[in-house]
Fold this protein.
Amino acid sequence: MKTGIIYCPNHHPFISVKKRWEQIASELSRQGVDYDLVQSEDSESVERLVDMLINNGYETIIIAGGDSALNDAANCLMRAEQRVRERVALGVIPNGVMNDFAAFWGLDYKDISNSVQTIVNRRVRKIDVGTISYRTRKGEPCSHYFLNSVNIGLLAATQSLRQRMRKRLWSRKLSYAATLVMIIFQKMTYKMSYTIDNVEEFHRVMTLCIGNAHGYGQTPNATPYNGLLDVTVVRQIAILQIINAIYLFLKGKLLTHKYVLPYRTSSIDIKMQTTTPCNVDGHPIEAQTDRVSVSVLPEQINFIVA
């Protein structure tokens, strides 16, 4: 089977782009992986390169990148014909700022050997894909697919802020610190309503996560192969309760907090203010919209799992 690897450089403060690839290439060689390499320049180039590999008959496409790059590859595959998705298997070598979807399958940024071994074994599983649909202010219909999660509210604002800080500051630690300082000046709650199973709820919400997988820890029980989405709604929390919520989040027990509402569903409709931040697998939705519909498409993509 023809294997193509798309290397998406992550500008790590302590490991150069060249050095990181040398580490990956060395392990690929050691385990006898025969592949062709292409390197992405940006988000748009990932989709173009996936298209190129598909059209040239590659049956295994590996993304050496993070959640955003995987999202680009998944969107490209979902726009292809069904027969293409049946033929092609998608895999990952974690190499991004965020590698949450890879972590779901037990793949770690530091353990290159295990990631390459997964490629060698090529154990394929069909996974679900989430889809978010909305209309822009001009009334134009838009849709995106996602593997990991959709975030609306404070976390989406935090992720966008962190990405901006990461581009301006050479150090990851400095970007984290700057983000923590700047988040103080962000809007903390957002008015929104959401409908699940024909029941509409109204809340002032800090953050809402719709997870096909772990959703950066907010939907810890979500799995991308059960045909359902996990939804976590964090309602407005008093200042003293926020510390407890952060503690539970770090312990993986966020869903036990009394101001957190968990759901499991196949679809959800959300109404919100047009200025409410929203992102899909780390990609911000630039067009301002006042409502979105999110659902899940079962068993859409062949994914190489550990």
User: Anything to note?
Assistant: The mean pLDDT is 87. The longest helix spans residues 154-168.
